[in-house]
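Justification of resources, computational component.

The compute hours requested in this renewal are based largely on the per-chain cost of generating structure records like the one below. Each record pairs the submitted sequence with a full C-alpha cell output. That output is archived, and it is also reused by downstream analysis tasks.
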Amino acid sequence: MKDYIQQRVLDLSRFIVKEKATVRQAAGHFGVSKSTVHKDVTERLPGINKILAKEVKRVLEKNKAERHIRGGEATRRKYQTKLEKGEKKGGYSKIV
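The structure output for this chain reads:
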C-alpha cells in the first residue's frame, strides 16, 4: 500500500474516533467519497492498526444504530422551517 493511502487511512480513522464522526462527515472533511472512507476503515485499517480498527468500528456501529433518529430530526427541522415561513406542509401544488 502506498504511503499516502496509509496516512489517509490513519487520518480518517483518528478523525472518526476523535469526533465520533459519521462516514459522511469524514468524507466531507477530507474531501474524499463515502466509498473511499468506508473502504479505508473497513478493509485497509485492520491490516494497519487492529486496535484503532476496533475503535472505529464501535463508532460506526453506534452511528448506524442512531441514524434513524438523526433522519427523523432532519425531517422535523425541515417541516418546522417550512411552517415558520408559512409554506404548506406537503402535497402537490394546484396549477390553474
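Residues 3-85 form one domain. The two ends are 62 Å apart (CA to CA).
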